[in-house]
Amino acid sequence: MLQTLFGLNGRLTRTGFWEVLISVMLLDVAAAVAAITALEHAFPGGQVIAASQVYEIVRWSLLAVAVLSVWAIFAAHVKRAHDRGRGAGFLLWVLLPVVGWLWLLYDLGFKGGDFSRNRFGAPPLGHGDLHHAGEHDLSFVSNDHHHGQGSHSGHADRHGRSRNHRNKTAV
After folding, report:
1. Any idea what the Cα angle at residue 84 is, between residues 82 and 89, rounded to 5°?
2. Which helix (H) or strand (E) holds 31?
3. Would you say the pTM of this structure is higher than 0.90?
């Protein structure tokens, strides 16, 4: 869980990416509501010293939540870029207002990741992304290379069939 939220290595599925973004946004809203509630209850009592102490606690707590939120969102973007076969430098699109933001949203939020291992590792498991279905189950690997089917046996398409599946004829 901590690696998913704060680590920069590995890959993150499209679903996992949205899960992190939504979770962080909900955490931020909860922190803001807690801060407002704490401040509302601190100041009506009229004790300025106690209220200022509450204010400082709330201020530092919100700063901590903001720093952790920004880092978690950055880490999710980096790992999602990795799943798309791109390095963290791809995120520099954010420096191009509107067009860059829309491009990042489209590319990271809506396009599928690489089907197979890339320079950032194996495809992430789980989170229900259909484009990864069958890629992690090695039970479809056949021994066709022993029967003269070529060197591509053992490699599968996205449906878990060997590449030679279409070339085989019924016996």
Report:
1. 55
2. helix 14-42
3. no
